[in-house]
Amino acid sequence: MPPAADCAHRPKALVAMSGGVDSSVAALLLQKDGYDCIGATMKLRRDEPPDGAGNRTCCTADDAADARSAAFRLGMEHYVFNMAEDFDRRVVEPFVRTYEAGRTPNPCIECNRWLKFGLLLDRARTLGCDAVATGHYARVQRRADGRWLLCKGADPGKDQSYVLYMLTQEQLAHTRFPLGELTKERVRRIAEEAGLLNARKTDSQDICFVPDGDYAAFIRRYTGKDYPAGDFVDESGKVLGRHKGLIGYTVGQRRGLGVAADRPLYVRAKRTEDNTIVLAGGERLFSRRLLARNINLIPFDKLDRPLRCGARIRYSQTEQPATVTQTGPDELEVVFDRPQRAVTAGQAVVLYDGDLVLGGGTIWETEDM
């Protein structure tokens, strides 16, 4: 055991442990890097997923047990924090209201914004920790002038920077991503070598509170409301069929429309004002321009001039060349060099300069090509 004076100067981290291999290895690597670590599992839901869904989601009782097992193996304290009320208020309710407004939300971004790097950071401070650590595949760096930067994870197949663009300078200063330089397979090998039981545990894939992927059914259960059917129409207003409620559809959707036509039709727009869904051919899904709000810029406080960069409008997309202009205190205009398919209001647009994350915002409206 090191002398007490040395212990007093050891950094301390609260590690968000989901029960998966990534967060467990993050804790292990931080320990090897000289940190005293405490494990923390967030209880986000009041219920359990349906039978058969547990292997595809997270935040279950089994996941908490896996996290506790990993923490015990690593000789760490472990806490379970009940954040179900905050999760409902900050993530689930906005998810539902956004769908009701005709947009398509990204709840994982809001969970990161308010819980993992918000409330959990507050808990870390209460416990005397210097930082919060997670198993995200991303990197935090510090510029010579002291400004904190967010960069992509080194493994392009696992990079998770898209869902972290909203991190502030204060949050980045107290965040650690130990897996940022690693591949997923390397992480699993480290877990196996350390004897962690979750080394080959399947990654969660679905939104944790909608494990079966049926968003419309979840929203109906959550609100107790019935969302009325309405008309599918073409761009001229001609009725093509009936939809089962606006909440059941998203821009770009083709499957499950139940409309007979002589060509493939896609959801082009959802109109809450008259409860109609506009269908069109695939060529009508492209937009060159979007406006984003609720913006966050990382390497700078504001854009003083138009900026050339890459932009993603969905998690798995490769960055697309664009020109970005700040048009207000909380608004960005993004104009792509080439029209982009199915730009969806409610999703995030995230800006990049190579591996550097410049920031982003919530897509608010789009303009056709």
How would you sum up this structure, described in words?
It is a single chain. The protein has 369 residues and is α/β, with parallel strands linked by helices. The protein folds into 3 domains: 9-193, HUPs (Rossmann fold); 227-280, SH3 type barrels (Roll), CATH 2.30.30; 286-368, Translation factors (Elongation Factor Tu (Ef-tu), domain 3). It is 25% helix and 30% strand. The chain has 8 helices and 17 strands. The protein has helices at 4-8, 21-32, 61-73, 84-100, 107-126, 169-173, 184-193, 215-223, and strands at 12-16, 36-43, 77-82, 131-133, 138-142, 148-152, 175-176, 230-233, 239-243, 266-271, 276-280, 286-297, 307-312, 320-328, 331-341, 348-353, 356-368. The strands form 3 sheets. The protein has a 6-stranded antiparallel beta barrel. β1 (12-16), α2 and β2 form a beta-alpha-beta unit. α4 runs antiparallel to α5 (107-126). The chain is globular, with a radius of gyration of 22 Å.
Q: State the end-to-end CA separation.
A: 66 Å
Quote the average pLDDT: 93
Q: How many discrete domains?
A: 3
CATH topology of the largest domain: Rossmann fold
How would you summarize what this structure contains?
The protein has 369 residues and is of the alpha/beta class. The protein is 25% helix and 30% strand.
How do the strands and helices of this protein lay out in sequence?
Blueprint: H1 4-8, E1 12-16, H2 21-32, E2 36-43, H3 61-73, E3 77-82, H4 84-100, H5 107-126, E4 131-133, E5 138-142, E6 148-152, H6 169-173, E7 175-176, H7 184-193, H8 215-223, E8 230-233, E9 239-243, E10 266-271, E11 276-280, E12 286-297, E13 307-312, E14 320-328, E15 331-341, E16 348-353, E17 356-368
Parallel strand pairs: 1-2, 1-4, 2-3, 4-7, 8-11
Antiparallel strand pairs: 5-6, 6-17, 8-9, 10-11, 12-15, 12-17, 13-14, 13-16, 14-15, 16-17
